[in-house]
């Protein structure tokens, strides 16, 4: 599943469409695409793993899910995985194997933009308050909770926990205050590192534990285990990461 940094890169690629008007729209997603014809794209907004294309009087939410993708200005052939194509005066955008929904503009005001880990509106204190309200939650679940850390995915989760030396099945309520602070800070720090490495096409070279077998610190064997309520893959070192 594309994580927040990858969605920001998609936003950057879509920004040149802002100010242009839709001339044609096709979709096998279940929403009425006809109202989009003749509307101008005013803004591209991201919230974690979601992208909002904001038009004159509606918005389209794109969620790439596990295997979604997009392309720009390609010459396409009919494809069952094509969920939405939008054609503007001179350019086109295409979205595949994803969730596409139309939302009212009012809906955008209901989103807690301060929960987006990569947003300028990110609110550290609000994240801390949400975490403290869930002392029995495992840290692996907390990092993947999109209401707390919108945009964090499994790669970021594993790498952040290795950075701060915490095992994924540790409980939020058991973390020392210093570790809780590190958890919040590194979730944001690593997300921006991820973004820069992704730009340079070197992301995987910087993975310390995600999909790895040997700990880069002690040389011991890493644990690979499905953890938390979501049963997502965790990679961690029992020696260099403490269970709280």
From TrEMBL:
The keyword Hydrolase applies. InterPro entries: FPG_cat (IPR012319), FPG_N (IPR035937), H2TH_FPG (IPR015886), Ribosomal_uS13-like_H2TH (IPR010979). It catalyses: Hydrolysis of DNA containing ring-opened 7-methylguanine residues, releasing 2,6-diamino-4-hydroxy-5-(N-methyl)formamidopyrimidine. SMART domains: Fapy_DNA_glyco (SM00898), H2TH (SM01232). Keywords: DNA damage, DNA repair, DNA-binding, Endonuclease, Glycosidase, Hydrolase, Lyase, Multifunctional enzyme, Nuclease. Pfam families: Fapy_DNA_glyco (PF01149), H2TH (PF06831). It comes from the Bacteria. One of its GO terms (molecular function) is endonuclease activity. SUPFAM superfamilies: N-terminal domain of MutM-like DNA repair proteins, S13-like H2TH domain. Residues 2-95 form the Formamidopyrimidine-DNA glycosylase catalytic domain. Belongs to the FPG family. This is Endonuclease. It comes from Chryseobacterium vrystaatense.
